[in-house]
Amino acid sequence: MSLQIGIVGLPNVGKSTLLNALTQAGAAVGAYPFTTIDPNHGIAAVPDRRLEALARMVGPERVTPATVEFVDIAGLVRGSHRGEGLGNRFLAHIREVDAIAVVVRCFADPNIPHVDGSVDPLRDIEVLDLELVLADLETVQRRLEKTRPAARARPRELAGELALLEELEGRLQRGERAALWAAEGEDRAALARELRLLTAKPRLHVANVSEEDLPDGGEWAAAVTQRAEAEGAPAIVLCVRLEAELASWPPDEAAEYRATLGLKESGLEALVWAGYRVLDLITFFTIVGGREVRAWSVRRGATAPEAAGRVHSDMQRGFIRAEVIPWDELLRAGSWAAAREHGLIRTEGRDYLIQDGDVCLFRFNP
Question: N or C: which end of the chain has fewer CB within 10 A?
Fold first, then answer.
């Protein structure tokens, strides 16, 4: 499953540094706009104590976590929807991702110029939202240009779509994000997905603060958090520069230093988990003898055959049944054999919906 979170924001807010910290991808970093032109991709492991606990029980040769793919997309500027600063190209990159992480600058540094001359995170979010809304408006108006004449010829077939498009056009013209409109019904949500609207994508906010403002982030970060809460989106406060440095430290030393700053966990861990939830993913586990314990991600609501397909396409095609046990029950049993002996392992069929934390053994015809 190649689900992607696009890291977006204005230039010089720390996007490429964040990707480096998340994935050690080595994206170019510079204190000037458009260091990134083509998107950089990186894979981040999802930290999961359940996986660690299962690994301690099994003692496998290999432990493989679930992952999230992040994409660093170049900074947007005013006029991006008209192509300013290669904006059309960058907006096209955003259309390809499944969710968006909006990185907002909440720190002052005279050595890193702000594209608008001063730090104001709420203004920056409004600039970004306006460019995305205007880009979506152009998309909808292009669709309307095709739909209106077609609806005159086939009114019974296209009248409903035309009405939805005109309604959406009006909402975007008032500066409203398409996500609010799409939440009002499945017909709207389906059309938003078909049009790949930028402002309909699920998103989270990342307040990039200075180390001195940790752990809470200060007034700028508080404003970003309030804005995120108002739209029902997660908000993560972290110091990107610090996280990039600590990513190369021994884990115990990094944890000790974070504790001195009042941080209970890595900002990167919080971000990865928030991204995981925004994508509406859950985790199931597989155990292959004593060789590997592995975490897999699937969309919430995935069936057992769909989950089997994550492991191997042959398993989905030849699916027979799934043997399933919640991870904590397996831990209490002490082993798969003991769990089977005590009747704790359930047999599930094709209609079973995988639950977060399931440990699965898939039976299939090869």
Answer: C
